[in-house]
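Give me C-alpha cells for this 452-residue protein.
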Amino acid sequence: MAEIRPFRAYRYDTNRVSLADVLTQPYDKITPAMQERYYAASPCNLIAVEKGRVSPDDTPENSVYTRAARKIDEWIAEKILVQDAAPAIYVYSQEFEVPGTHTRRVRIGFIALARVEDYDAHVVFRHERTLSAPKADRIELLRNTRAQTGQLFLLYDDPARQIDTWLEQTARTAPPIELRDEFGVTHRLWPVSDPAFAARIQKAMADKKLVIADGHHRYETALNYRNECRARAGTTDPLAASEFAMATFINTHSRGLTILATHRLVSHLANFDFDRFRKNLAPHFDWYSYPFANPEERASAYAEFRKDFESPKLGRRVIGVYPGAVQPGGGAFYLFALKREADLESLLKDYSEAQRGLDVVLLHRLILEKGMGITAEAVAGEKNVGYEREMDAAIAAVDRGEAQLAFLLNPVRVEQVTRIALGGDVLPQKSTDFYPKLLSGVAIYRVEGRIG
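Here you go.
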C-alpha cells in the first residue's frame, strides 16, 4: 500500500557550516525567541526559509516567501546546500532523555519519499484535524521555494522489528553525521545509497498503512500542492516530484517511540469553588487526596501521588488534579478515579469506543464540560484552558497564581493513536506530543521535475 522511494536530498555541506548552527526545530515549535536565536547563529541558518521574519513593508514581490526562495537558490548556487550524487534512504536516529525523568532512549527510523495519497485511498491516516491558517502559510512557502525542509513523521506497524533491525545494523557499519540540538537531543544520520538496501525497505513497506504522528498541516499542504501541479499540467505524471513528500518513518514498535502528555491549566473561572467542583463530579468519579501542611510533607505527598498516578494501584483510569495551596504551605494533590460502574457508552455516546478510552476525552467531556461548564468552543479558543508539557511546570503555574487548577494526564499510548486513526476518527486537540521533534534541514527535498 505505501510506496516508498529513495531520493537525492539536498544537505548542508559540513565543511562550510556547523549543523548545530544551521538546523532548526519544526516551524510550528519555533517561538519568537528561538527565531531570533537561530538568526543570530548563522547567516545560513534554515530559519530564513523554515520560518522567516515578516516585515510590515512586505509586498507580494518581496515577502517572507520570496525571500525564502531566494535563500534556497543562493545556498544551492554557493554550494552551501549540496545535492547528493545518488538516490538514498537516510537512516536517522535520535538519542534523548525523556523530559522529567533520567531515562535515556534511542529512536531510529529512516527518511525517504512517500507517495502522497488522498485519505480515502486508506494508505495514509490522520489522527487530528488541521487549521486553515497554517496550511495557507505552508503552501505559499512551498509554491515559492519548491522545497520541503521539514519532515513528516509517519508511523508504520512492524511488530517483528525487521526494518528496525536493518536500520540498526546499518548504523553500526559507518560513522554518522551527528549534532546535538538545544534540547540535548543527539541526532545522527547515515545516508545509504545502496539500491539493494532501498529495495529491501520498499518491499517491506509495500503492505504498510501509514499514520501521521506529526505534520498533519505539512501533509495536507503536500496534497494540495500535488493537486495544483496536476491541474497546471493538465495530466498526472506518477513520477512528478509533487506526487511525493519527504518523511521520517518510525515503527510503532520502536523501542524509543515516546509520547508525552500535555497537561491542562484552567484559569479565569469566576467564583470557582473546589468543594462544589468535587460534588459535581461525584456521580462519575471517586477522589483521593494527598495532603500536605509544610514543604517536607509536600515532597512526600507529591512522590506518593506520582507513584499512584503513573501506575494506578486503584486499577482504574485516573486524572490528577492540583488546586494549589488552600493555606500558606498547605494543600493537596488529588486523583480523580473513574467509577467502575460508569457507563461511558451512555455518557460519551457521541464518541467511538476507541475515543472513549482516552483520558483526555474524560477530562474534556466529563470534567471540563459537565463538571465546570467549560464548553468545547471555549477550549478551542483557549479561553479558559492552557497547555503545559511538564507536570512540574503545570503545578508551578498554579502555585504562582497563573492558573486556578492543573489537570494532569498520563500520555496517550501509541496503540490508541493508531487504532483511532485507522478507524477514521481523530483525537481531541493537543492529545499527543511525540518526542523529540524531527529537525528541519537534516535533509531537504526539492519538489521540482521528476524523481527516479
